Amino acid sequence: xxxxxxFLTLLLILAATSSPAAGEEQLLLDAPIVxxxxxxxxxxxAEAKASPHWDIEFEWRGEExxxxxxxxxxxxxxxxxxxxxxxxxxLMQDENRMAPCIEIPSGALKAGRNKLxxxxxxxxxxxxxxxxxxxxGSGRLSDHLSESKLVIKVQDSVTGKGTPTRITLLxxxxxxxxxxxxxxxxxxxxxxxxxxxTVYSLSGEVTLPVPAGKYVVLAGRGFxxxxxxxEVTAERGKSTAVGLKIARVVDTTGYAACDTHIHTLTYSGxxxxxxxxxxxxxxxxxxxLAIATDHNKYINYEEWAVRSGAREYFTPxxxxxxxxxxxxxxxxxxxxxxxxxxxxxxxWKELFGEIYKTPDVGVAILNHAHDLHSGVxxxxxxxxxxxxxxxxxxxxxxxxxxxxxxxxxxxxxLTQLTRDWMALLNRGLRVAPIGCSDSHDVSRHFVxxxxxxxxxxxxxxxxxxxxxxxxxxxxxxxxxxYGLYATLNTEGERFAEVFRPESHDDVEVCVEMQSPHxxxxxxxxxxxxxxxxxxxxxxxxxxxxxxNQWKEMFRIPNGIHDVYVVAVATGPGVEGNYWRCAKxxxxxxTRWESRVFACSGALWLDRDGNQKRDCARDYALxxxxxxxxxxxxxxxxxxxxxxxxxxxxxxxxxxxxVDLATAEVLAAVSRSSDMVKEAYRDVSLEIxxxxxxxxxxx
Length: 698
Fold this sequence. Notes:
By secondary structure, the protein is α+β, with helices and mostly antiparallel strands.
């Protein structure tokens, strides 16, 4: 994106030499510019001529009152707007493309020459932002935002009844549009949660004051539903009826949509979603099992859900994000009047002891393991052996679930946490994969975009059996979704179950992927013991009706030891503001590719016939014991197994203080199979890199 320097120069000259008549607008910027705080944040802006701030001087002879309107994109950090060197407002900290409006206080504009500036606020942080259009209009902001009305009604196309929904309002140019609910409502409106370009309605209805103009209106209810779209012209002084119908198109029968990571401004103290608004957004995104996880507080949504009228749409669960100096953990369910979990605890063994003795608690989730909080990144190289699935500092990995997808804190490598989770399975830990939103907001990072599907009786979303759901999560009977829905089974057995083949033949597994018409997968991968077995590209053609569906069989080669199988589906991400995929929260690269994602649970194949799950670590320990200290014998035995088993065996030897760099070890490895050599190389590299990372950290 390049700035038109000649146009901007002419614009500055015109602004400095001309002024508007009373009641007209003053156009200050009409061509996109890029502002940069710190280093380049994203590769897409690398070629742009970026500036650290923006200033313009202009003449003003318009009458008061007046308002300022601008179009922004990709604003992550804090930027302030100065009028005549005094703070007027801040840009919206929101990466979506949007058009905010603010009223200019009386006396802030001077008759004659004025100066408008936009500059980073506070400590310099890396941020590339785009400004596209800035103007000052004469008149009251509330009048401008109420020139016309859109009377919107969203219905379920099957029942014909109103339905909880998320409505997106876009200007003709695609930016999220400001509207009158943001300026004319002194009190919150029951059953409504409104932000720029976004309105959640519990009933499916809303009367939306808007400036006169052309709009695109969209309606949906999470990724299980179709997306309705209509273009409309709002005429000054008139009301326009807008009807939209949506349908549930993704079949999730037998699974409840769960968000395990939900915050409110009311109780967490940051973000912007009040407790009242949160009830509406949960219903509007189709979440059926809602876990309250404000920081170090036990919050019960029950009363709020009943009061709002949303209780029939979801089952609330009391939880807590136990926010410690050494990691964040979502814990639930928590009994009424249970003692507070000591969140200052830094010893993981003692912390998990406190967590599991808290009445009713059945799930403890490790949150955003690669993100830095309080100076600690749990799965940083200096703390964690990712390949081995083992903490390098001896911290007890007592959680029984972990986030592999957090839609508010995605990773530069979307599947990194999935690989970390599979390594934990190889290590022998019973850990369930979790998808969640970590939402603190109404619309910036919205609730339910990342979610977990929990196996249960889901016929009545408002009356789910919480105990059944908790047991399913703890047992790994879950699917992870970020816009796609992938299931895995074989001969009637489903993921999270143990399947015993009747013969030593290869095993066929079935992968099925679903998505609504507005999302799609283009790649399916099948992993066995964390190793990629097969990858298939999918045709991303036009959806049939309102749904995309794909189903295919995969063959798992025979072997002598147990393995688990996991299916992962990915596809092009959503750039549109109706369901936009967020950029990484703490990126490790300036390059980013927007993708959607799904992950099945793990299906265990009991190939040794002992009717239990044996992991790679179990086999590694037996091989080492049978080898009786003879390294060459251990390496030879490993050749009958897979890379995951070899990795675990080498990790065990390292933990027992065996020096893997001696001439004897190198000679034994040189006589081994290519698979064992690769495992040795990777384990040795991880051990070396961890040691260097610890040294550099000091």
